Every structure is written in C-alpha cells, then in structure tokens.
Amino acid sequence: MILTVTPNPSLDRTYEVPELRRGGLLRAEGDRVEPGGKGVNVARAVAAAGGATTAVLPLGGAEGALLARLLDGRGIDVAGVELAGSTRVNVTLVEPDGLLTKVNAPGPSLSPAEAEALIETVRARSADAEWIACCGSLPRGLAPAWYAELVARVHRAGARIALDTSGQALTAALAHRPDVVKPNADELAEAAGRPLRTVGEAVEAARELRARGAGAVLASLGADGQLLVEDGGIYWGHAPVAAVRSDVGAGDASLAGFLAAGGRGPSALAAAVAHGAAAVGLPGSAMPTAADLAPSAVVTTADVPLDRPLTAGRGGGTT
C-alpha cells in the first residue's frame, strides 16, 4: 500500500470557454471538477493502475467534503484531518485552441494543532504503507521545516519516504534523509543553484542532492526522459509519445509507477517512464490505467547520454 500526503489539496474546476475576454461575461460550454494536488494525483494514479492507496490530507468545508467523496469514488482510502477553513478551489479556463488560463487559490491557513494532527495521522497510518509519498507545496501556516519534521518522525516509525517538493521545503528536509526525492528539471536546477544544460549536468546536480541527504533522486526531465541516481548506479529512461495531450500530473503518475514497482533500480525507473508517457497522452489530469501503459516501448540504460542537451519545458516526443 502506498500512502500519500498532500498538505494543500484542491478541487480543480475546469471551464471550457469559446474565448477569454477580459471584463466580459464568459459562458462556459462545458465544465468538470476533479480532485487536485500532487499527492492526490499520486494516489489517483496508484488506484487507476489497480493498486491500494491511502490519501492523508486536510479537509475543510463543503469543498473538503466533496473532495473526499470524489476520492472515495475512485477507490482511494481517505484519511482526512478536519480543518476550520475550507479546502481551496483552483479554476482553469480552457479555450478551443487548448490555451489554458489558471487561477490557483492559496488555500486555508493551518493552525499549529491542525499541522500536528496531519503529521500524527501520517504516523498512525504508516504501519501498513510500503511507501509514503509526501508531495506538493505547503499551505499557509506550515513552515518550510514541516516536511523535515514529517520525514524525521515517520522515519522513526520505520517507513520509507518519497518527497516531491521544492525550494526551502526540500532543502530543509534533506538533512533528515528522505529515501527518494523527485524533482523535475527546473526544481533540480533550483536546488543546485545553477542552470542545467545537459543530462550530464542533471546527473551532477542529482549527486549533489544525494550528498546533502537524499537517498536517491528520480528526476523528470520532460522531453529528455527520466533519470535515476541511487546507490546501485545511474540510469536513464525514455519512451516515445505519439502526441502530448496534457502534461498535468504526468510527474505524479511517474512517481506512482516508480513506488508501485518497488522504488529502486532500473525496473522501477521503467515503470515510472511508462506511467509518465501514458499520462501525457491523456486529457487533462487523467491518470493512466494498466491498459494505457506500454512497458515494451520503454528503454532504460546505464549508458546515460551525458552530452544530451536538455530541452525540458520546450515540448518533445519522449518522456
């Protein structure tokens, strides 16, 4: 079972509009609402592929109740921490040509008691988890050191931690040795403090994160594949993608595949690549089912193309 932690989850509401006009009345031609947040997406991906998962998250107001119902309807065990505030709602406007305009709410401010209850819920539910995936930004009320405290406390309970966050929250947590960290190319560059121009430079940045405390680094490089740097070696993987429909949640799907496959070695990297490649071929934030995966199309190798220029963020046909 994979347990996910999402400190700042959301309801993601999408409206399809014929044209975005500032100051005008927009009549939506379609709308949908989905569970949101990086840890929530990991749980959705695990469940979509047939795995067992528990989602720990703060829930508040009618929005939180709806989020819990949506997750339950997807076969996800919900371990909610009740908030005085309301779960945030993010809004996306989609135009006919696919252009997105997004408005992300800041989310509620958690009190010290609510922050402590969230950590204790994770610790209490960790006994049955093979992995705990802690993902996403921190809401108001949680200091950057909150993930560090969570990693330290849950490690004492014997659980393995995968951490997908950035900035000060990532830096603070490294000292407590998360078992896996999962940056994308931009987050890896931010953590290294310099631009990354090649896969080889990404390898060096990942090594630096390991020297600072990360057990392993799984880096999503967008069109340039995925990189795994761990005790057992350095591996690179990629798969062709016929058409990119949406990259929303693709990194979260990759992390779900990696952890579900054991979270170690080239076979887990191959699963991460397969899940990421399938996710970008699906609309919106849809998560791949087992039928969507094409593991035979994945290539993984220890012969890492160190001189390959990084094109992440500029599109491409592989993941």
UniProtKB/TrEMBL annotation:
Segments forming domain Carbohydrate kinase PfkB: 18-286
CDD domains: FruK_PfkB_like
Any GO CC annotation of this UniProt entry: cytosol
A Pfam family it matches: PfkB
Molecular function as annotated in GO: 1-phosphofructokinase activity; ATP binding
Keyword field: ATP-binding, Kinase, Nucleotide-binding, Transferase
Gene3D superfamilies: 3.40.1190.20
Domain of life of the native organism: Bacteria
EC number: 2.7.1.56
Family: Belongs to the carbohydrate kinase PfkB family.
Name this protein carries in UniProt: 1-phosphofructokinase
Source organism per UniProt: Streptomyces sedi
The encoding gene: pfkB
